[in-house]
C-alpha cells in the first residue's frame, strides 16, 4: 500500500467519479482504475461500488477510508512541519443544522486552541449536506436532530454512511418570534395562534424532503410560508414580518439574538439533538474538546445532557 493510492481514493471520494478524479490527478482513467483495483486486491476488499452515476464507497470502503484519512492527515502534518518548514497548524471541521449553541461552541474552541496557525470550518448547512460532508470526510462531526417523524430516515442514512449518532439533549418545541410580536407575552402558544403569521423555515436544497426539515411538523400546510438559507435572515424576517419558526428553545444573546424570544409550543413532539460521526474513526482531540464545549453551552441554557444528572432549570 502506498500513500499515493490513498490520495487517489480521496480524490475519487471528493469528485464522486473515477473519471473526474483522474482529470484532477492528471492521470488516465485506466491507470487510476488499475491503481485502485491493485489496492483492493492487496487489502482483500471492494472499496468502491462503480456505476454509470459514479463511484460510491462500500461499507468496507468507508471503514478503510476512516483509517486512510487519519494516515493522510498525519502525512500532511509531517510535510508541513519538516518538508515545508511550516509550524504545525490545527484543523477541524463541523457541519450542522442552524443552532446558535453550535456557533458559540465553535467560537469558544478557536479561542482556546494554542496554535499560531489553524484551519477551521463551520458549515451551517442543509440536513442532507451534513451526511454528504461526513461521507466525504469534509467534516469530522455533524450536529442534527432526530424525532419520531424523521427517525426511520435519519437512522437509515446513518447506517448507510457508517455513522453513529450520540444524543446530547432533548428539547421541547418552542416558537421563535420577535419580542415585539403580541404573542411574545404569552406563557405558551398553540398552533392555532400562529395561523395568520408567516411561517419561516430553512431551505433544504434540491432534495427538499419533509424528513430533512429542520423544523418539526414539516408536513403541516401554512397560509404564508417563507424559506431562507441562513439564521441571520430568518431572525430579520421574524422582526420585519412578524414571522415565526419552530425550534429547540435555545437562543443566544451573544449572537445578537436579543430581539428574538422562544415561547413553549403547546405540542408534544420533543426533538433529540446530537452528534453524528464515523463509527470507526478515532476522534481527534479537537472534536472531543468541541463536544465538551457544546455540552457546556447546552447546560448554560438549562438543559440536561443525556447521561448526566443535571435537571433542566
TrEMBL record:
The HTH lysR-type domain, residue ranges: 1-58
Alphabetical list of CDD domains matching this protein: PBP2_LTTR_substrate
Q: Which UniProt keywords apply?
A: DNA-binding, Transcription, Transcription regulation
Q: Which Pfam families match?
A: HTH_1 (PF00126), LysR_substrate (PF03466)
Q: Does the entry feature the keyword 4Fe-4S, yes or no?
A: no
Output the Gene Ontology cellular-component terms. protein-DNA complex
Q: Name one GO molecular function term.
A: DNA-binding transcription factor activity
Q: Does the keyword DNA repair apply?
A: no
> What protein family does this chain belong to?
Belongs to the LysR transcriptional regulatory family.
Supply the name of the protein.
Transcriptional regulator, LysR family
Amino acid at each position: 500500500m502506498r500513500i499515493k493510492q490513498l490520495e487517489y481514493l480521496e480524490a475519487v471520494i471528493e469528485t464522486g467519479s473515477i473519471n473526474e478524479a483522474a482529470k484532477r490527478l492528471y492521470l488516465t482513467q485506466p491507470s487510476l482504475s488499475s491503481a485502485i483495483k491493485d489496492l483492493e486486491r492487496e487489502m482483500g476488499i471492494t472499496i468502491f461500488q462503480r456505476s454509470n452515476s459514479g463511484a460510491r464507497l462500500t461499507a468496507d470502503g468507508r471503514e478503510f477510508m476512516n483509517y486512510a484519512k487519519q494516515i493522510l492527515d498525519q502525512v500532511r502534518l509531517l510535510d508541513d512541519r519538516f518538508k515545508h518548514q511550516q509550524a504545525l497548524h490545527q484543523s477541524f471541521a463541523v457541519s450542522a443544522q442552524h443552532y446558535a449553541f453550535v456557533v458559540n461552541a465553535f467560537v469558544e474552541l478557536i479561542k482556546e486552541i494554542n496554535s499560531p496557525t489553524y484551519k477551521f470550518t463551520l458549515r451551517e448547512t442543509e440536513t442532507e449536506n451534513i451526511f454528504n460532508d461526513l461521507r466525504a470526510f469534509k467534516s469530522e462531526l455533524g450536529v442534527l436532530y432526530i424525532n419520531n417523524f424523521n427517525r426511520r430516515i435519519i437512522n437509515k442514512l446513518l447506517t448507510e454512511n457508517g455513522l453513529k449518532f450520540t444524543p446530547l439533549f432533548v428539547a421541547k418545541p418552542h416558537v421563535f418570534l420577535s419580542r415585539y410580536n403580541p404573542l411574545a407575552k404569552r406563557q405558551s402558544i398553540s398552533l392555532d395562534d400562529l395561523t395568520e403569521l408567516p411561517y419561516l423555515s430553512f431551505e433544504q436544497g434540491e432534495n427538499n424532503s419533509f424528513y430533512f426539515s429542520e423544523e418539526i411538523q414539516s408536513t403541516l400546510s401554512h397560509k404564508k410560508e417563507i424559506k431562507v438559507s441562513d439564521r441571520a435572515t430568518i431572525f430579520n424576517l421574524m422582526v420585519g414580518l412578524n414571522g415565526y419558526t419552530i425550534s429547540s428553545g435555545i437562543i443566544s444573546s451573544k449572537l445578537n439574538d436579543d430581539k428574538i424570544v422562544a415561547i413553549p409550543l403547546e405540542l408534544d413532539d420533543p426533538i433529540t439533538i446530537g452528534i453524528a460521526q464515523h463509527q470507526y474513526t478515532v476522534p481527534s482531540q479537537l472534536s472531543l474538546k468541541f463536544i465538551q464545549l457544546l455540552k457546556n453551552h447546552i447546560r448554560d441554557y438549562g438543559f440536561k445532557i443525556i447521561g448526566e444528572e443535571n435537571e433542566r432549570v
